[in-house]
């Protein structure tokens, strides 16, 4: 009977910490990257360990049994660590603004990420119209940096036409082609999904309502949580780093059912993602300039597509 009471208490303690809350806590710990967070969440979901017990785990055990790096284990066991206060602030913020912290156990976590990404993000912060992950069809427009003006104009037209046919654009927020896709949606008052290369706070401000696109302020003064969705695999306060761009692009392609390849640089990230999308059976639509010109990356994609 004593053992049963103890097991019941442990189960209750664990229920007090939903995977989303635990994932938010882990995202606040310094030196704890995606791979380690994924390991901890996976092991914790299958263990009888409560979060309080995990937080009191000896440093050596965290490294040997939980797979944490020495730096992350040290940060986690530091009693006066600043991340604990930060977690309290971030937990209050997500509750106040209705931010969803999605893990693989969440019913709304996009299965498309698990199918496309070699290492799906263990934590995905979502703010806004979550239903966009479950309804309609989504599209991305692949247009590498340095694309000619004619290609950028094609991005506008392709986006408008796809939205007219019921498509929901998936885009980023800080390259010319991504911005054009998003602004086309804003002008048409159509929903869109934006994947960030930084945390929600850095992009949307302290109240999570700042417009993502400077040009959008001509049309709207606040981010429309009732219409649009913004996603980030990065901690809420994270800034932009170079490597974040590749992660952002990967998630954009993963979430799209159709990819419009407009201007793709040969050997670049966009070409690699188009190849992966094609291998996984996603529909790839290729754009040609009025004179028949296509980019080197698109040409290579077409040459490798077998004839029907």
Oligomer: single chain
- The computed structural class is alpha/beta
Poorly predicted tracts of residues: 1-15
CATH fold annotation of the largest domain: Rossmann fold
User: What's the story with the biggest beta sheet?
Assistant: 8 strands, mixed
- What is the N-to-C succession of helices and strands? HHHHHHHEHEEHEHEHEHEHEH
Return the CATH class of the largest domain. Alpha Beta
- The proportion of residues forming helix, as a percent range, comes to 40-55%
Distance between the termini: 68 Å
> What is the domain tally?
2
Number of DSSP strand runs = 8
List keywords for this structure.
14 helices; alpha/beta; eight-stranded mixed sheet; Rossmann fold; 308 residues; 2 domains; 8 strands; disordered N terminus
What does this structure look like?
It is a single chain. With 308 residues, this protein is an alpha/beta fold. The chain folds into two domains: 2-97, no CATH class; 111-303, Rossmann fold, CATH 3.40.50. Helices cover 46% and strands 12% of the residues. It has 14 helices and eight strands. Helix 2 crosses helix 7 and helix 9 (149-164) runs parallel beside helix 10 (176-187). The termini are far apart. 41% of the residues are buried.
Give a concise summary.
The chain has 308 residues and is α/β, with parallel strands linked by helices.
SSE topology sketch:
Elements (H helix, E strand, L loop, with lengths): L1 H14 L3 H9 L6 H12 L5 H5 L3 H6 L5 H8 L4 H16 L2 E3 L8 H6 L7 E5 L8 E7 L5 H16 L2 E5 L4 H12 L5 E3 L4 H5 L24 E4 L9 H14 L2 E6 L5 H11 L3 E4 L9 H8 L5
Parallel strand pairs: 3-4, 3-7, 4-5, 5-6, 7-8
Antiparallel strand pairs: 1-2, 2-6
Helix pairs in contact: 2-7, 9-10, 12-13
